[in-house]
Structures are given as structure tokens and as C-alpha cells.
Amino acid sequence: RRNLNIKHKKYDVASSASNLFLMEYFVSYADESAKAHFINQPMPELFELIHNSINFERIIGALNSENELSRLKLKFYYALYRARRLTNIECYFEAKKIFYENSGLFPLTARQSFIFLLINCISYLMRFLPANELEKENYSNIKYMFENDLHVFPGDNLLPAGSFKNALILSVKFEDHDFTKQLLEKHVFKTHRKFHKPFRNFGLALIEFNGSNFGAALEILQKVEFIEPAITMDVKILTSKILYEMDYIENAFIYIRSFRKFLSENKNISGSLKDKYNKFTRFYTILLNIKSGKYLNRKDEVTKQIKNEIVLESRQWLINKISEL
């Protein structure tokens, strides 16, 4: 706060405000993570202090034309700050417009940071706003990141597995065949070598599943090596869907029970992820029971519960399958 005194610290206002925005942004993110992992941290107190003590618009307005790059940077941070703080999609699009229209002015590291923050923000908003259209928006940012080589950070030659997996799943979902092909034939080799074969097989299985070739998808999935929890979870989710789609209901009951046991016994999966996947197994089991003739009078009630969950794996698939019964 001392560094943000415009009268006495004009020279430092840009860097100080930038640091403040980042601190506020990630303090709120850390608080969410702490809650997800059942850690008691008094983050909201710092959050409120920053929000109530600083006149952000005055700071941005104080930067003259000589500080145009700093002004754009602060406007971007401030728009994202309001998007999260107010759960406001228009503020997100304001930040996106600043970035896309001026990306050529920013150095590579700033562009990488900004696209990451945009993806992070839209993912956050998807918890509270209708997710379908926002998921397409999220995909457009992820694709932009890959097409403009913003997905591998300087000093790190490897593409993060999570970034690749998210791009792959969404490209198949939105039937962006050319980009899916690029991912499986080019970008997959930028991940750690241990992921090359598993991700290629998982991607091919997704394509078959999306084309309703469930038997072929299941056959390919059996070739995927379970090398780390993230891909293991996705394989188990997809296998559960395939068993349902193929009407292997008894096998599906057995499989989902083993999935629950795997979650309860695995110590390498965080509490928040376990919660996310346990919710899927719970609603999937209810879906199987409805399919088997039980709880038919609870269809509307269960659909409402699914829609009200803030974080739920395969939400729309579950809703669609219930509506078909």
C-alpha cells in the first residue's frame, strides 16, 4: 500500500500495482485451494483489505501515454480482478479484448502469463455461470495458446501434461478434427516421453467414442498405460461411459465400485480431485439404478442436483443420459 501512494511514488506505481493485482488474484486462488484441501487459512481478510483500500481506477488513470504498455497491463489485470470478484463475464471479455488486440506489444513471457490467466478466469466463472458456451470460450483460448506457441514456457522444454490433455479432450468434443490431428501428431511429442503413447491411445479412443464407435474405443483404452493419476482418472471416466453406452449395466456397476475403491485407497490424489470424481461415481451409480428401473420418479430431482453442483465431471453427459430414460 505504501508503494501505491501516487503522490510520492509515481515512478513505482506501475510495477507496484501489477504486483498487487497478481497478489490479490492468487491470494483468492490460494484461498479456494486451501478450502478445497480442507486447510484453514485466513486469506479473505487480506483479500478484503486489498479490495477496500486501493483505488485501482485512479492508478490506471494516473499512467500517461508514455506508460501505455503498463496501462494496458494494469487494465488487463483489473478487468480480470473484477471478473472474478463480481463473477462478471463482461469483465472477462474486456480483459480478453485488451490481450487479443494488443498481444503483439507484450513480450513472450507476458503473453504466456496473460493467456494462462484468461484460461484460469474462465474456468473459475464456469463454476457459477452456464458452462456450455463458456467451455467453447475456454477452448478458443487453449487453441490460441497452442497455435501461437504460448504453451511451453522458457526454460522448460516440456509441455505440461494437463495442458495437452485439456486441449485434446475439448478438440474432440467440439469436433475440431484438424486441431486434434495436430495435437496427436505434433504437440504430443512436446510432453514428457512417458506420455506419448498413452495420450495418443487416449486421443484415438476419444475420437472413436465421439463417433459412437464404443467397442473400438474400449479396445483402444485397454492399451493405455496407467502412468499417473490424471490420465488414469480420464480413462476410468471414459470406460464408465462406454460400458453404459454399450448397455453393459452389470459390468458398469462392478466397474464403478472398483473406481470408488481406487479413489478411497489412492493417497496420490488430492482431496479436491477425489471429491470431484466421487461426485461423478455417485451420480453415475444413480444413473445406472434409474436405467435398471429404480428411482424412475427421481429423474427430475437428480437432474436438478447435477445442475446445482459447482464442480462435477461429465455434467452434461449425465444430464443427457438421464433425459433419455
Overview in brief:
With 325 residues, the chain is mainly α. 71% of the residues lie in helices and 0% in strands.
Structure notes:
It is built from 16 helices and no strands. Mean pLDDT is 80; it is low at 1-13 and 33-43. The protein is mainly alpha-helical and 325 residues long. The N and C termini lie far apart (58 Å). The chain is 71% helix and 0% strand. It has helices at 13-36, 43-53, 56-62, 68-86, 89-102, 108-125, 131-147, 161-173, 177-185, 193-210, 214-221, 229-245, 249-265, 271-291, 299-308, 315-323.
DSSP strand count: 0
Helix fraction?
over 70%
The largest β sheet comes out as:
none
Contiguous runs where pLDDT drops below 50 for at least 5 residues: 1-13, 33-43
Topology overview:
Blueprint: H1 13-36, H2 43-53, H3 56-62, H4 68-86, H5 89-102, H6 108-125, H7 131-147, H8 161-173, H9 177-185, H10 193-210, H11 214-221, H12 229-245, H13 249-265, H14 271-291, H15 299-308, H16 315-323
Helix pairs in contact: 1-2, 1-4, 3-4, 4-5, 4-6, 5-6, 6-7, 7-8, 8-9, 8-10, 10-11, 10-12, 11-12, 12-13, 12-14, 13-14, 14-16, 15-16
